[in-house]
Design goal:
This protein has about 300 residues and is an alpha/beta fold. It has helices spanning about 1-25, 40-45, 50-60, 65-70, 90-95, 125-130, 195-200, 220-225, 250-260, 285-295; strands at about 75-80, 105-110, 140, 160-165, 185, 210, 230, 235, 240-245, 270-275, 280-285. A hairpin with a 2-residue loop joins strand 10 and strand 11 (about 280-285). Helix 5 packs parallel to helix 6 and helix 8 runs parallel beside helix 9 (about 250-260). The chain is elongated and about 65 Å long. The N and C termini lie far apart (about 70 Å).
Length: about 300
């Protein structure tokens, strides 16, 4: 255990200082060395190597450690994916006692593949997260069931990156206002469809979209969402600058998506990568230039 190793290091340091103190006593100088001798910055650096679960346990050692464990420097990046026993109750305890304005990045594992089941991310918890952690910029969810969420507007407004892996999505991702996500990563999300892709047009700041193993997205769906000039100006995913599509082991499907979905050009798209096994097929801003040339003719 990491905690055991770190504790051994602290004990070894204390023993070394105690030995030096004994030598000082032989010289007529009295010194007393224990854990209280260490500055708080050093103790916080040592505690930063612990996992979240071990941090919570370390806070039970004494009052001083309890105060140190709550230092927000230890809670900037929180990864709970390795803690298999996390429940909604534990999430509430962490949010009320430890998480705060220092949180920047949060990784969570849901109960989608768990035998326990039940609600993991509730609407009330996400709202409390928005209030308690106003600087949270990245949220990564693994195997989370989001079908019970009424709308994406309950996500923290401070989010800039949202990464979903193996998650179940709600019926709609439409969000007229209030969401500031700039990068969306979907990895192995079978429930993501063309309808969800169209809903992303309402995400006002979305500039980077990465779709990996989203089998239900079709070439027609891509074509319908491509940024194009309409009667009221630019329509579709007009703010998108980067698009990545990846389907593992389906070479022919990839080429079809690239040719049918993006061959007509995508206004404003600076870089477009379609992932193919063993190599990358790159389509960049030349597509938009070709589209403009054809339209001029």
């Amino acid at each position: 255990m990491i905690f055991t190793r770190l504790w051994s290091i602290l004990i070894a340091l204390c023993w070394a200082m105690r030995c030096s103190a004994t030598n000082a006593e032989d010289r007529g100088t009295s010194q007393f060395c224990n854990l209280d001798y260490f500055p708080e910055n050093i103790l916080i650096d040592v505690l930063s190597y612990l996992s979240v679960r071990e941090l919570v346990r370390a806070g039970r050692v004494c009052k001083r450690w309890k105060r140190l464990v709550k230092d927000q420097r230890l809670w900037r990046t929180v990864d709970l994916t390795a803690w298999k026993g996390v429940t909604s109750r534990i999430l509430w305890v962490l949010l009320r006692q430890y998480l705060g304005c220092g949180l920047r990045c949060l990784h969570l594992r849901g109960l989608l593949l768990s035998a326990r089941g039940g609600t993991f991310l509730s609407e009330s918890w996400l709202k409390a997260l928005s209030t308690k952690c106003p600087r949270l910029s990245k949220l990564c969810l693994l195997h989370a069931d989001l079908r019970s969420l009424p709308t994406c507007q309950i996500l923290p407004r401070s989010l800039r990156v949202l990464e979903l892996r193996g998650c179940e999505l709600p019926r709609s991702l439409a969000c007229p206002s209030g969401i500031c996500v700039e990068r969306l990563v979907l990895n192995n999300v079978p429930s993501f469809t063309d309808q969800h892709l169209q809903n992303l047009a309402s995400w006002e700041r979305l500039s980077r979209l990465e779709l990996r193993d989203t089998f239900r997205v079709t070439a027609n769906g891509l074509r319908s969402c491509a940024a194009k000039e309409g009667l009221s100006g630019l329509e579709g995913l007009s703010r998108l600058k980067y698009l990545e599509i990846g389907i593992t082991g389906r070479h022919g499907y990839q080429l079809q998506m690239a040719s049918l979905g993006l061959g007509a050009g995508w206004l404003g798209l600076e870089e477009n990568l379609t992932l193919v096994p063993f190599f990358l097929l790159s389509l960049n801003s030349h597509l938009a230039q070709i589209y403009k040339t054809k339209k001029a003719k």
